[in-house]
Write a sequence for this structure.
């Protein structure tokens, strides 16, 4: 059995990147022996679960102490005798993990890029040529993410989902609309961490325009994060508290998507947005920023909008989609390559073929 070290460059939390890492682990752990290393270790459900399952976890120095961080990776890889390291990140700054792993002698360096932006774009462009020389297997969640992170050849592996789980279900729709107390309302939904990327402040501006035209409109926000309180305060200041529900974290995202009438996603950027795929699997019309990879579009219910367009235009588009008939999109999503088992099998084979 091949031994692979997963290097997580961001905290484990309720987000798409963490979900993909854990999906890969769950799918491949019978064929690959995994260990984990991160500078973001904290007691939470993800790390606790790995500990319970006896998956070795190595705690690295804080990433802001760059030399200590890289030295820590070098020591772990040098001692570990891994067949490969598997690095998840959002840019060529995965060089900070790949370079010490290469120096430590590992032959297979697999990187998986999940986004199209970095908080340090200048550093990204400086290290990109060097990063690409030492990576052996380049995976990207979309063509946009691949072009951003890599030079030369790379492999696009789409973010797959459990299609059957999200298939439209009229019974669940009625049940969860009753739970919300919004049986007769026009429910607009959003799922995402409250951070800069997801652009919640603009989303609230859009909803205000919708609510001005339709006071039966309701907004359901699923997720949590560092900017959540600021968004709560903005909703209060605009007098929208009775029309906006902050649901927090839930294990029933698929059920609440059934309750929605429209999914709104004005992110500043996305690699390949998993929740956008899940929304389509639920048969929802989706209004989304045009900075997102066009590979997300499977159904004709995806409607692109520019972030340069005012909230009023976004609101008008949303209202024009009110009353859309939900359809079963399972077959279309599977044929487009978004079945989770199929995408995870591709990654598992790459990991099993490490040196």
């Amino acid at each position: 059995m091949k031994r692979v070290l997963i290097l997580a460059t961001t905290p484990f939390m309720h987000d798409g990147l963490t979900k993909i890492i854990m999906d890969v682990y769950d799918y491949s752990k019978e064929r690959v022996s995994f260990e984990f290393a991160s500078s973001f270790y904290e007691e939470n459900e993800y790390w606790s679960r790995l500990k319970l399952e006896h998956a070795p976890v190595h705690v690295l120095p804080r990433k802001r102490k760059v030399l200590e961080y890289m030295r820590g990776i070098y020591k772990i890889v040098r001692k570990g005798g891994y067949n490969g390291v598997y690095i998840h990140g959002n840019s060529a700054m995965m060089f900070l993990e790949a370079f010490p792993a290469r120096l430590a002698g590992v032959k297979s360096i697999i990187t998986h890029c999940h986004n199209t932006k970095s908080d340090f774009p200048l550093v990204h462009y400086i290290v990109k040529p060097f990063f690409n020389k030492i990576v052996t297997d380049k995976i990207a969640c979309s063509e946009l993410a691949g072009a951003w992170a890599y030079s030369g050849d790379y492999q696009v592996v789409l973010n797959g989902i459990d299609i059957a789980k999200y298939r439209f279900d009229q019974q669940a729709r009625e049940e969860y609309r009753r739970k919300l107390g919004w049986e007769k309302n026009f429910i607009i939904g959003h799922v995402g961490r409250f951070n800069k990327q997801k652009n919640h402040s603009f989303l609230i501006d859009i909803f205000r325009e919708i609510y001005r035209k339709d006071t039966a409109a309701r907004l359901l926000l699923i997720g949590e994060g560092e900017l959540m309180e600021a968004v709560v305060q903005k909703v209060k200041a605009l007098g929208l508290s009775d029309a906006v529900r902050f649901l927090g974290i839930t294990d029933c995202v698929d059920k609440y998507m059934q309750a929605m009438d429209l999914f709104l996603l004005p992110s500043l950027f996305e690699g390949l947005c998993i929740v956008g795929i899940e929304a389509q699997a639920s048969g929802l019309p989706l209004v989304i920023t045009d900075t997102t990879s066009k590979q997300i579009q499977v159904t004709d219910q995806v409607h692109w909008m520019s972030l340069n367009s005012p909230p009023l235009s976004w609101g008008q588009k949303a209202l024009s989609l009110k009353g859309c008939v939900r359809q079963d999109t399972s077959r279309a999503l599977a044929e487009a390559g978004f079945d989770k088992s199929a995408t995870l099998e591709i990654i598992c084979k790459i990991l099993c073929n490490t040196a």
Observations:
- The mean pLDDT is 95.
- DSSP finds 15 helices and 13 strands in the chain.
- The longest helix spans residues 66-80.
